[in-house]
Amino acid sequence: MRLQLGDLEIHGITEIEQFDVPLDFMFPEIVTLLRDNDSLVSIDPSVLSYGQVHLTIRSWLLRKDDRVILIDGCVGNHKTRQHWPSWHQRDDDAWPQRLASLGVRPEDVDIVMCTHLHADHVGWNTRLENGIWVPTFPNATYLTGRVEYEYWLADSVAGDKHGSFADSVMPVVEAGQMVFLEDGSDIAHGLSVELAPGHTPGQLLLNARGVDGGAVFCGDVIHSPLQLRFPDISSAICEDRQQATRTRRYLLSRLCENGDFLLPGHFANPGWCQIRAVGDAFEMR
Ligand SMILES: [Zn+2]
To answer: What are the domain boundaries of the chain?
Structure first.
């Protein structure tokens, strides 16, 4: 599936079509809201069923002005992720094959944008070569926020709680391919980043402005369409849930006004949508 907005050409590259997380773990307040309000039970079963929130694990490929930009690198292969069985020691080439089917070789990627440094957003940053992690995209400049990097650098000293900093971030830094961005940095004509804190302290949005519309690659500002209906509910894995809510409401309100497309990492196919306001909440339009 392709989203064409003038000179912005966008493709989703799915790694895991459906990744289930228990609702009472991910959004415990929504369990209560659903129980206390019968009118809210009409949730699309592709979003939530049998107490499981259905998420997709996806990267985005953006082509603009002959540049090839990959946004977020999913889980990747051969990574040790014992807390999440479906992420652990994956050996599945579907993701690189989907990239190849778009005519993109690893050496063709110009920019790898890491919205934040969680394990399901940086995995394909690196691949194993003779037992050593090396950057998957040899000619790419990898980008992430300076605040984000410094946060996870400190976490790695304390034990690397997700395990992804050592195998998917540091090898890129050590190869000299990582550039750290500040809030508001321009990365190319019509492409700029914006601090979107809460889920992680230094998460960055990528704002893409084309000749015929805009797109916002928002990382995990929003995980599930459930949060359009319940925009004040942040996930249990958000570092600062109140700040995550402020960031989410700010972004969703802006998208209602300007009509830009929202491209989160975890919505079901096609993975993108436009937003409209419904009372104090939101829905896809
Ligand atoms: Zn995340």
So the answer is: 2-284
**Residue 241 Cα to ligand 1 middle (Å):** 13
Q: Average the pLDDT over 126-147 and give the result.
A: 98
Omega before residue 270 within 30° of 0, cis: yes
Q: Which of 123, 223, 133, 113 is nearest to 175 (CA)?
A: 133
Q: Please give the pLDDT value at position 41.
A: 59
- Contact (CB, 8 A) for 197 and 145: no
- Residue 158 CA to ligand 1 center (angstroms) comes to 19
Radius of gyration of the chain (CA): 18
Torsion of CA 242, 228, 216, 98, to 10 degrees: 110
CA 122 to centroid of ligand 1, rounded, Å:
10
Cis ω on the peptide bond leading into residue 201 (within 30° of 0)?
Answer: no
Residue 118 binned pLDDT confidence (cut-offs 50, 70, 90): very high
Assigned architecture for domain 2-284: 4-Layer Sandwich (3.60)
Encode 238-272: b = buried (16+ Cβ within 10 Å), e = exposed: bbebebbbebbbebbeebbeeebbbbbbbbbeebb
CA–CA gap between residue 211 and residue 179 (Å, rounded): 27
- pLDDT tens digits, 10-62: 999 999 999 999 999 999 998 888 877 765 557 888 899 889 999 999 999 99
Strands 213-219 and 261-264: parallel
Whole-prediction pTM value?
0.96
**Ligand 1: distance of its center to the CA of 211 in Å?**
30
